[in-house]
User: Fold these one by one.
Assistant:
Number 1:
Amino acid sequence: MMNTPTETRVASAPVFHRLLLTGAAGALGRVLRPRLRSYCQTLRVSDLAELGAAFAGEELVRADLQDPVAMLGLLDGVDAVVHLGGVSVEQPFHVVLPANIVGVFNLYEAARLKNVRRIVFASSNHVTGCYRQGETITPAARPRPDGYYGVSKAFGEDLASLYFDRYGIETVSLRLGNSAAEPADRRGFSIWLSHDDLERLVVASLSAENVGCLTVYGTSDNSPSWWDNSAVRDIGYRPQDTAEAFRAKIEATPASADPQDPAVLYQGGRFLNIGPFPFPFP
Ligand code: 15L
């Protein structure tokens, strides 16, 4: 069942002619789909998976990121893209490769050929998941991916850099923390991103002028923060929520019994416990 549009529209944001939302059937796609409608005349929603019925002001396009011809059609007539498509968790490399490496390449090539000027790329905190929890890093710190998914998001950020320097396509890469209705666990004290703040961050990334090629972390107003994220203020993002509001509830749940568990030592959390996968591929 689809949500109805939210009333939290950022008044200063421009109204786009046509926005494209990829990965619209995924967890965050379902959150952003009703919220983005009020920022555009037409919201083109896309996924490989079933999208349900079109709402007023929507165009539904089932498209595979791996299909270059489909991607050219998908990007046609679009002002800006919010790219959530692809795999969103750690997977074996042969699963990540087509969705997140080939797929993001097809997206940028289609954007170049269709003259799309702005992409908001859902990157991930897993680009730097091998930093220790408690360590504070900036988006300029060396990428330390915690798996193939993190590597694929680092690749997407590098591709964004190439397409800005060579072709002037602007990208805001959002290294999203954990965006959910509530923080899931103690790691959430530092990386939780509320759904309302997700909307604010995406809208700021679509609307700010002259973003060039920018990488920022995506969190609410959390403490302790692991990320020195001052650049995000420059695009006008002001988080309104904080994981602090859930502290008592989370601290009432048992902490990990093993202090050496990589899931509690590293910023990437439980992704550090996934893999290696069978090789050669099955
Ligand atoms: C991500 O990048 C995933 O897309 C999301 O499902 C969460 O696992 C999140 O990271 C996280 O780190 O908790």
Number 2:
Amino acid sequence: MITTRLTEEARQRHGLSYVATAALGRTMASGLLLASSMKREEARVNIRVKGNGPLGGVMVDAGANGTVRGYVDNPEIELPPNERGKLDVGGAVGREGYLYVVRDMGYGYPYSSTVQLVSGEIGDDITHYLVRSEQTPSALIVGVFVGAEGVTAAGGVLIQVLPKAANDEALVEKLESRLGALAGFTPLLQAGKSLHQIFEDLLGDEGLQIFPETQMLHFHCGCSFDRVLGALKILGETELQDMIAKDEGAEATCHFCAEVYKANEQQLQELIDELRVEKAHS
Ligand code: ZN
């Protein structure tokens, strides 16, 4: 899965630092990978990472339809590279804390699960969640490369062993060792390898069949000016009058996509008028 463009959009929208771009980008790729394994257009996955590092929480909402949105609490936090010369995502997120995953099929109760963080590097933590919580032998790698000109490569691979093969320890070990030997996902993308080639290199000799399945992925948020007006209206007349008197309007920023919505005095007055009409009729 290649998520370069949507990760760059998130970076620009939220004004993310290098390390924040990597943390959110890895989490968005993980969310999309988990959602895509759910095989239902309406299915969504929410991932919340709450570590003890300076970045604060990371929140991602991803859908099987290829849409994703997300944010981090402290987008401007920057850290020096770690001992391997990479962006210190584990240090920013924190190595202690929790990973919360909610899978919503679009009907019935959502399935939620919590595991402790392993390293705060996101990829390890999601893999641990899959093994611990879903008991599926899985290997996941996610990566983001961000340079001075923005995000130049981002994406990930999720390999899950089907129940029938899960007892084949030799196969599971072989997969793990091959994934472990990869220097990372983004260097392969940067070297110009296609997803097809990456899978072929990893699993080609296992008689792997690759179905060409392509899906457009987007950064997308369902917020709108109408929803903001709806939320303002719930505050009630007194609060709205106060906003008109003190601020000559109202401004709201969406957490998920950083879109700024401004309501002017006249629009607030219309909300007050609506509230009065509704009151008169109730
Ligand atoms: Zn939004």
